[in-house]
Design goal:
Helix content: 55-70%
Number of strands: 0
Distance between the termini: 98 Å
Order of helices and strands: HHHH
Number of helices: 4
Number of domains: 2
Mean pLDDT: 80
Structural class: mainly alpha
């Protein structure tokens, strides 16, 4: 059956021969050239049966025309605008990265400050819990008040919740 199809296609002798199609199919490792060839043959056969004339070379490569000086200038201007736009986008992206890095550093500093405040507040809470426990057990503080850590001894950073007390 395949041989009959090829022989029928060869009878119509298009611009491209069946040998060229087979070589193209093998080179591209695809059956697409064969399918295209078969469809072209079917269209050609139907046109012959209906009495229509043959379609001449539908797939001409596009012609290359020389650009006019005006077109060349227009194309160069467009390329230049594109280069400028690309450079502007690179600069903008670089600034954004720098801004984000700066913001990251500020947030890391703020986090360190807040972690320091947390440590100091935990120390204060521990001391106050000890003092409270001594008062609850003995009814009064049995330790030397001079040994107690006061809020003034724990230096808190600006903006700390205890700074407002």
């Amino acid at each position: 059956m395949l041989q009959a199809m090829f022989s029928a296609m060869e009878q119509h002798s298009p611009v491209e021969t069946i040998d060229d199609v087979l070589i193209s199919a093998l080179d591209s490792n695809s059956i697409t050239p064969m399918v295209k060839y078969e469809l072209a043959m079917k269209v050609k056969h139907k046109r012959q049966i209906s009495g229509e004339e043959e379609i001449k070379n539908l797939f001409e490569p596009p012609k290359n025309y020389e650009l006019t000086p005006e077109e060349k200038t227009k194309m160069e201007n467009r390329k230049q605008r594109n280069r400028e736009s690309a450079e502007k986008a690179r600069v903008k992206r670089k600034r954004r990265v720098e801004d984000l890095e700066e913001e990251c550093k500020l947030l890391e500093d703020q986090q360190r400050s807040l972690n320091s405040d947390i440590k100091k507040l935990k120390l204060c809470a521990k001391v106050f819990n000890q003092v409270l426990h001594r008062h609850a057990v003995g009814g009064r503080c049995t330790s030397n008040p001079a040994n107690h850590i006061t809020l003034h001894q724990v230096q808190l950073t600006q903006g700390s919740p205890l700074m407002n007390t």
